Amino acid sequence: MEGTQPQKPHPVFDIIILGASGFTGKYVVKEALKFLNTPSSPLKTLAIAGRSHEKLVKTLKWAAHPSSPPPEISIITADTTDPPSLLSLCSQTKVLLNCVGPFRIHGEPVVSACVSSGCDYLDISGEPEFMESMEGKYHEKAVETGSLVVSACGFDSIPAEMGFMFNSRQWVAPAVPNYIDAYVSLESDKRIVGNFATYESAVLGVANMDKLQELRRSRPRRPRPVIPGPNPPKGPMIEYQEKLGLRAVKLPSADAVVVRRTLVTQIENPHGLPGINESAEHAKKREAFWSSVKPAHFGVKVGSKSLLGIYRIIGVGIFIGLLSRTSFGRWLLLKFPSFFSFGWFRKTGPSEDEVRSASFKMWFVGHGFSDSSLASERNAKPDMQIITRVMGPEIGYVTTPIALLQCALILLSQRENLPKGGVLTPGIVFGPDLQERLQGNGISFDLISKTALSA
């Protein structure tokens, strides 16, 4: 009963960053400092948390450089293996940003503590099993306690979700999309080096694929989006996109899973999820936004301008696919990441120069029908193509902190306009408000072309 719930203590902090001294966490701290006590920012109080006080002090100095660290930032010792420390942490904040991965290992105790205390939770996970498991275990309790639990608030999967919705909203009635494919292209003047935690999560995800399938079979079936037209063609293993100048292969990532979850929630709530005490203005904005988002099949591919680049991507996939099946194989993959990823991942992460020089482009190529009536015709084939693009800085240490912080700032500034609680996707929670904020912080959304396709 609601009457038996203990009264929540008033939070001391607007945001606590957990795992702040990690590779990604320190860049999240750096991004957060840009908005701390600045005009019009809702972020007035900030704390950082982790296992080592000494490392957190060093992180704060690094993030604030060349200035001195703001004296009002608190440093809190907490450990994901110590539930009481997590409950104490969560009782002190409005929003907890979790940067401690792999999330399949370290994530659940943090989610549990946030849901129990009623604070909001955001993370940068790109792990489907973790996200779907948390939804199954904690959604109802999170609704009850008023805790919003939102994973995939980094490069996985904000550009994909917002980019998909941006493309789907370009299909103005009577036009409808049938399928939208995303093509990710990573670019740099220097060497491209990824986050080791991302690599580790991929290895563990492939190793536990059976558990994900078992989890999905055990959960109630939810309605599927009704998408006009036939299923999209499978296409060749290596695809050449002439308009983009890219060769591409399918990328098994969280992006398609997250987009699918958003579309399923939209079926159940065609106008989106109303806020706790939503203003009439925001309700109108939310309803207009979701009425313009159209369902479509969605897939993600990773692209390269060279065939050699594609062969390297395939090679990494083969190594992970084969060696992840045994404990010794996983040990090899995690012990020698640079060797098995052809230098794309290393335990030390990229240098600051490598981070500054990197960027991404994510192209969304939508195929559909100029009139929805054409989709129901026998042997129907799409007669229209819309290409859009999302573009931004380095994915793991720049775009990810930007996306995470913008989600957090929406929570702080518009909490009454957002759902009471639940385990939800970024798109369904932040969709109407997030694109504009990302565009103001270095991530662009562009309509590239609308063309008719010959029969």
Annotation keywords:
single chain; 455 residues; alpha/beta; seven-stranded parallel beta sheet; seven-stranded mixed beta sheet; 16 helices; 14 strands; 20% strand; disordered N terminus
Structural class: alpha/beta
* Termini gap: 61 Å
Order of helices and strands: EHEHEHEHEHEHEHHEEHHEHHHHEEHEHE
Beta-strand content bin: 15-25%
- The poorly predicted ranges are 1-6
Coarse shape: globular
The neighbouring-strand order within the major sheet is 3-2-1-4-5-6-13
Per DSSP, the total helix count is 16
The pLDDT mean sits at: 93
Radius of gyration (CA) equals 22 Å
Number of strands: 14
Binned, the helix content reads 40-55%
What can be said about the biggest beta sheet? 7 strands, parallel
In short:
With about 450 residues, this protein is of the alpha/beta class. It is built from 16 helices and 14 strands.
Task: Give your account of this protein's structure.
- The protein is of the alpha/beta class.
- The chain has helices at residues 23-33, 53-64, 83-90, 103-117, 128-145, 158-168, 196-207, 209-218, 254-268, 280-292, 307-323, 327-335, 337-340, 352-357, 395-414, 426-439, and strands at residues 13-18, 46-50, 74-77, 93-98, 120-123, 148-150, 176-188, 239-241, 246-250, 297-304, 358-369, 384-393, 422-424, 444-452.
- The longest helix is centred in the C-terminal third of the chain and has 20 residues, at 395-414.
- The protein is globular, with a radius of gyration of 22 Å.
- The termini are far apart.
